[in-house]
Amino acid sequence: MNTFANPWSSPQSMGAAATAAFAVFGSALTLIGTGSVYKLNRTEDWRMLVQARVPFIVDVVPQSESSAQRPDARTAAQHLSNIRQVLNPAISDLAIAFGVSRQAIYKWLGDDVTPEPDKRERIIQLSRVADAFRDAGVSRASALLKMKAFDGRSLLDLLPEGKLRQEDAQTLIAEAKAMEAVYARSGLSASRAKPTTDWQASVSIPGSAE
């Protein structure tokens, strides 16, 4: 038979232990000089005072905040390479969108010349559109780039006007996914014929001029 008594087995024991702990803590506060004297036989009276003086705060930063959008450290040349890899625009189209010559685009790509601040800002905007298309797994980003989906204008048309928004890219991504879903439900994806994207047209996009 186990005759060992658990000192924490009763509420009275736990209360006594808590009082003792506060007593020790109160003695420590007296020794280090808090400006007050806490009598050991009146722990219930000064317990709340001690708790107020010694707050225990845990500041937990949500993961979403701690990993907030980090500064984009890519160079203009890296942004342009990203644009060409994902969106695959013609150099002449980029020259028109940025209001420069084709030679300037090649110099930017080679990191030989740094674009002016306003041009660099447009490059970053278009590069982030490319990021969005890549992250969404859009396979025909180059076609979406020139799609006249916004009152007869494309993303490349909006860029020099300073009206290119990330929301516009998300609109095209949603439309592309909707068309892909319709294509999958049609059964054409299971056909033995060579896959093609000719069936996808901008006519399904609101505001399209085509």
Question: Short summary of the structure?
Answer:
The chain has 210 residues and is an all-alpha fold. It has 10 helices and no strands.
Which terms summarize this structure?
mainly alpha; globular; 210 residues; 2 domains
Structure, described:
It is a single chain. The chain has 210 residues and is an all-alpha fold. It folds into two domains: 14-53, no CATH class; 76-204, no CATH class. Helices cover 54% and strands 0% of the residues. It has helices at 11-32, 43-53, 63-66, 76-86, 91-98, 102-109, 117-136, 141-145, 155-158, 166-186. α1 (11-32) crosses α2 and α4 runs parallel beside α7 (117-136). The longest helix has 22 residues, at 11-32. It is globular and about 50 Å long. Mean pLDDT is 74; it is low at 27-34 and 58-68.
Write the layout of secondary structure elements.
Elements: H1 11-32, H2 43-53, H3 63-66, H4 76-86, H5 91-98, H6 102-109, H7 117-136, H8 141-145, H9 155-158, H10 166-186
Helix pairs in contact: 1-2, 4-7, 5-6, 7-10
Distance between the termini: 91 Å
The chain-level mean pLDDT equals 74
Please give the radius of gyration in angstroms.
33 Å
Share of helix among residues? Answer: 40-55%
Q: How would you spell out the order of helices and strands?
A: HHHHHHHHHH
**Main structural class:** mainly alpha
